[in-house]
User: Fold this.
Amino acid sequence: MVTPKQRMSPDPPDVVVVGAGAIGLASGWRLAQRGMRTVVVDGGEPARGATHVAAGMLAPVNEAHFGEQELLTLNLEAARAYPGFIAELEREAGVDVGYRPCGTLTVALDRDQAELLRRLHRFQVSLGLEAEWLSGRDCRRLEPALAPRVVGGIRSSVDHQVRPRALALALATAFERAGGELRTGSAVSSVTVDGDRVAGIVLDSGEPIAAAHVVVAAGWQSGSLSGLPAEARVAVRPVKGQILRLRGDGGKPLLERVVRTPEVYLVPRADGELVVGATVEERGADAAVTAGGVLELLRAAYEAVPGVTELELVEASAGLRPASPDNRPIVGAGALEGLVWATAHWRNGILLAGVTADAVADVVQAGERPESFRAFGPERFGGAVRQLTETGAG
Ligand code: GLY
Assistant:
């Protein structure tokens, strides 16, 4: 990592990416790979926001709602691309990111939940996804730690997992190896605007960084960057998620695959860690861990997998998911020339990091947004938006 005094190049960057979470780092990596001088800036250490707290479920269907067809299509595209994204990243960074194609078992603890999951199963089958309905007994055969009260569930071989903290380390390493510059501990004071285009940013220290492109990947804080005129802003709100990390024995894991109920998810790591998440709380920028949040998670986890009480509780944390007014991502060119949004990934930031990064690089390099992001541009919220090139997806 470079400190402000160790600037890599005397030339001004082509692109400044604001935010060193999974989205900002992945975008920076792709931009640097395409030969653009890229600086990623962050007020703290890399990936200490939502990425640090995320469980890392890659759950294209379970983390979208019925009827969110465009988001589902994007999520599925991201899931299909994930193995390739990870293989390239691990090769470039030399870091194991804990990608486990372990699948997911989503179980019902009573008849109401079973009815809900039956609908989800029909939906998955209608999409042509591999998803099998299992009886309670068959669920317990797969995962003997499940409670006797489990009445049935869906085995899916689509939803997998990755370790977000390792992913972030790998992205930062790959970004720097590709020639990018990571400036941490450097909060952005404002975006610089020159007429109808962005001209760079100014750091809290007063240091300006000139750049023709500014990519905003600042998570829930993306909407409040100063310097942008009101009509060029997007609305992003924080949605709190509390999450627990429990330690078990990697040699005798409690679970083999991700287990979910409609109330909780449990993500088992290869080393015995079990991540239990997550609350969904609309409380503004409050990231406090509460006794009520921990109680809610442990109760729901215990009801599904009673053996969780034997594990060591090693971490309780809270993160702020970035969400747009319609809870869908905001990715694309903004209202000013050179301004690009890459934010509001809500519950799918880790899954969507790779495809978002590709989209950001396309927008910066060619003014084009891939077709799969057609529905996710900032223009859907109104306001002035710069015209994309005729090949751009508007
Ligand atoms: N994707 C899991 C969560 O947002 O809690």
Observations:
- Confidence is low (pLDDT under 50) at residues 1-8, 384-394.
- The longest helix spans residues 69-93.
- DSSP finds eight helices and 19 strands in the chain.
